[in-house]
Amino acid sequence: MFLHSSLSLLLTFLVGEASASYRDLGIPASSSTVEVRVFNVQNATLINEAHAFIHPIVPGHENASFTDHAFLVDHKESQKRILIDLGFRKDVLNYAPSITPFFTSGVVQIESLAKDITDLLRDGGISLESIDAVIWSHTHFDHIGDMSKFPNTTRLVIGSETDTSTFPTFPNATLQESDLAGREITKINFTTASLNFRGLSAIDYFGDGSLYLLNTPGHLPGHMSALARVTPTSFVLVGGDVFHYAGQMRPRPAFQTNFPCPAHLLEETKSSISTDFFWSPHSEDGAFDLRSRAQQLLAISDTPDSFYAAPITAQVSQDKVAAFDADPDVFVLIAHDISLRSTLPYFPASLNNWQAIQLKEKTVWNFVDKTNPGFVFGPM
């Protein structure tokens, strides 16, 4: 009898592990949802700056190329609409003076400055007056856009540790008065959060379980992410700059278990991923073995000019988000994952059906395809 009970408990445990769901992350159940749509506002390349984001740098991959995503979130019950991040502003030389040298020096090269997020919204029939709030994941210039284009009725939501000093009062400030002037500013203080999902403090934004703000520090003080419930049992995690390259998050053991690399890519990586720079227990010289790699391929840059303000803290945030990345009920999307540029359904398409169309399974290994712009693991 005891043996039978023990076996039953073991079987229940194993089945539970195999059918892991969002409930294992500590997220409460709810029937309230939001709709999430994503814009790729611009594509940009930072010349000779990849070292400030990742390590190692394989020869030929010294430049860092990124998308610049903005997320539109509709809360049907309240009829409120929010934006998470804005991308670049169109008139980049009108950033604060501490920022403009990135553009005048040619370090930052943007594919097109014809339109910004406000233009894309209007083109899509979304009035700026309908935007109840803009949430900045953080205040780097490629996320803040030009808030002066939004009506004063649009609130600004930021992390409580965000530096809100502005130019010209503070000559070296990265924000300027027009970014904040004349609007309500809400600071999210995670020290008062009553929810915690796998180590991430969470605040229920609408109070109904449809959208949570998550504390993900390290990249910049005040950095936060968002967890949007798009069906009662599935989510999109909008990660801001928790990571910049998919290889900073993947592969990890739980991720590989739930999302095995497609066979054709697994075979390709044997020769495409350089064993001079990457290794795993079953690798041999000139033959990389992805399946036995137990840690992510890319480390966070900790150079003096790193774009991560606190690399160790940023790594902790990445490790926490990794549990969501491995969960079959959560699709993690960041601001700059260029490996998704040709496969992510952009506005006006909705991301709410990502699980039904198996979008995660189809895209999360894009970054190891040697023809993908996110591939940085072998000499060019």
Overall description:
- It comes from Mycena metata.
- GO terms for molecular function: hydrolase activity; metal ion binding.
- Keywords: Hydrolase, Metal-binding, Signal, Zinc.
- This protein is of the alpha/beta class and about 375 residues long.
- The chain has one domain (about 35-250, about 290-370): Ribonuclease Z/Hydroxyacylglutathione hydrolase-like (Metallo-beta-lactamase, Chain A), CATH 3.60.15.10.
- The protein has nine helices and 17 strands.
- It has helices spanning about 1-20, 100-105, 115-125, 140-145, 175-180, 255-260, 265-270, 310-325, 360-365; strands at about 35-45, 55, 65-75, 80-85, 110, 135, 155-160, 165, 175, 185-190, 195, 200-205, 210-215, 225-230, 235-240, 300, 330-335.
- The protein has a seven-stranded mixed sheet with strand order 5-1-3-4-6-7-10.
- A hairpin with a 2-residue loop joins β14 and β15 (about 235-240).
- The N and C termini lie far apart (about 65 Å).
- Mean pLDDT is about 95; it is low at about 1-20.
Element-by-element helix/strand order:
HEEEEHEHEHEEEHEEEEEEHHEHEH
Beta strands, count: 17
What summary fits the major beta sheet? 7 strands, mixed
Please write the CATH class name.
Alpha Beta
Strand content: 15-25%
Which overall shape is indicated by the principal axes computed on the Cα atoms?
globular
Measured on Cα atoms, how large is the radius of gyration? 21 Å
Helix percent reads: 10-25%
Structural class based on helices, strands and sheet pairing: alpha/beta
Tally of distinct domains: 1
